[in-house]
Amino acid sequence: MSSLLSIGKSGLLAAQVGLATTGNNITNANTAGYNRQVAIQGDTGTQYQGFGYVGTGTEIQAVRRYYDNFLATSLRGAEANQASLDAYSGQISQIDNLLADPTAGLSPALQDFFSGVQDATANPASAAARQSLLSNAQSLASRFQDMSAKLTEISSGVNSTITSSVNEINSYATQIAAINNTIAGLTTDQAAPNDLLDKRDQMLTELNKLVKVSVTPGDNNMLNVQFGTGQPLVVGNQPFQLTTSTSPTDVSRVTIGYQSSNGNFSALPDSAFTGGQMGGLMEFRNGALDKAQNALGQVAASLATAFNAQHVLGQDQNGDLGTNFFNPIQAYVGTNTHNSPASTADVTAVVTDGSALTASDYSVDYDGTNYNVTRKSDGQVTAVTGSPQEIDGVTYTFSGTPQQNDNFLVRPTYNAATSLSVAITDTTKIALAAPIATAAATANAGNAKISAGSVDKNYLTPGNALTAPATLTFDSASGTLSGFPAGQDVTVTVNGTPTVYPAGTPVPYTDGANISFGGVNFAISGTPVDKDTFTVGPNTSGVGDSRNGALLAGLQTKNVMNNGTATFQTSYAQMVNFVGTKAREAQISSTAADASVKQATAAQQSVSGVNLDEEAANLLRYQQAYQASGKVMQVASQLFDTLLSIGN
Description:
Blueprint: H1 2-27, E1 37-43, E2 46-48, E3 53-55, E4 58-65, H2 69-100, H3 106-122, H4 127-186, H5 194-210, E5 213-217, E6 223-227, E7 231-235, E8 238-239, E9 242-247, E10 250-259, E11 265-267, H6 276-311, E12 332-335, E13 346-351, E14 362-366, E15 371-375, E16 381-383, E17 389-391, E18 394-399, E19 407-411, H7 416-419, E20 436-440, E21 449-450, E22 454-455, E23 470-475, E24 480-482, E25 490-494, E26 497-501, E27 507-508, E28 514-517, E29 520-525, E30 533-538, H8 547-554, H9 568-608, H10 612-647
Antiparallel strand pairs: 1-4, 2-3, 5-6, 6-7, 7-8, 9-10, 10-11, 12-19, 13-18, 14-15, 14-19, 15-16, 17-18, 20-30, 21-29, 22-29, 23-24, 23-30, 24-27, 25-26, 25-28, 28-29
Helix pairs in contact: 1-10, 2-4, 2-5, 2-6, 2-9, 3-4, 3-8, 4-5, 4-6, 6-9
């Protein structure tokens, strides 16, 4: 009877474990990271009774955790991609809304500014029109500054999110290392603490949403966690802590790395952070955000340099040559904090040619002999051969004594929109007139005419500006013009082909040819006769003149950016289109990522998830087994009582 009682007892205990396991599944059906558990039941062997073998009962061999590492890894990968795209999409939508705003964007301010230029050109003597031009210019500068400030604000937000994410990553790394240690202590050859394994997997899931990690098995049921190209976060029960610091060349930029025991900071490349929220933030910051800030600054710097270049070729109401309309754009130069303490090198950079300007950043490095400037967008290296030297529209000036491996970061356009400002405050200083005037003598017998004339940047060379009229006389016998300023060569361009005539030599006359000397350009067309004269001299009555104003207004539709391939408006439109396209791509990819996560979740839950219908059936099954085992024990008790009664 004792064997029957023991068999019943074993069945009762097994059913009890089954009920507890099923109940645990049911109560944790909605617990994040919980994996279904099943009590694995087996027999306890048999005993030989002479006539054969008789069973001795049952036992619970294990409580199995239903977990598929391949499906769990696939789900983590899908969730890391989803988190990355969500972070990227959330950030880029801010820039998209900012740039595409039809009222707060840059396009209306640009249009208003050039409308002011056109109005002042139409009424050059009007103080009101000139004041309106200045007001529109200041509004345009403010619009650039406001947009740049908002992009800077977004950048600061990214820095804050990166810092908080690093703190979360460190927290998870510490917790995973601690639970690794606990699991190792509780693991036996027969069993592992299932609930702790679930808890660790859930921590890995949350960590993976911050930065994509790879997980490898370690000793004694512990896991090792890495990210990027193998950078460690957890090795066994040892966590590795990340920290943040400012970039050695840009104090406005947060970088991530390891802090060594001696306090040294070892920076990690941004490319090490792929997937997860951190991956999305890094891709956004290094891609769309930097491109938008640089492209906006490129428009601002190109506008300032192109407008200034034309404005200084004009004449103001006081009869003086024009000055800079906008203040010069100083490029950001960051001196690497790791440069040698013995170095006294200094680099300054000023935007001087908007047409050659790119939206790229540059690295300036000293190799021990020479400076080299590397364009980061494509890696093109330009050797510095002198100081100052212009490279891609930026004039570099080098001073001090450099040391080998000295490094500087130059960002020509990153802060250009912020620093754009109007230099002129006096309306009479607006140079709408041209500094030269031309005329054909009224006594001329021929029908030749001279154009109004213009000047180029060579006119600003000392000694080239006209201080008195030059009278050009036609000699019919030789067919030449004479009377050009002494000491200046004359260039005659016919059908695009220039010919230079040394100073003091007669210049052959060609109908309609362009004639230039000392930065002065004009053309004479028609048929002159002997002794006909033409004068080219300073503009002494230019109050109502607006020839330079017309050239300034023409900059709106002139291809002055990207080596003469884009206007200010089209360049800005390209930037808006780029950001809009990237934002739309991110939305589409995010939708696809959501579907992938749902798919991966369904696959993982099909193995590890709790099915309440199935668990309800198991509950009834174990209940019946419990009752049946109890009945076995009851029968054994009754038989035992019967045997005892026979003895009485």
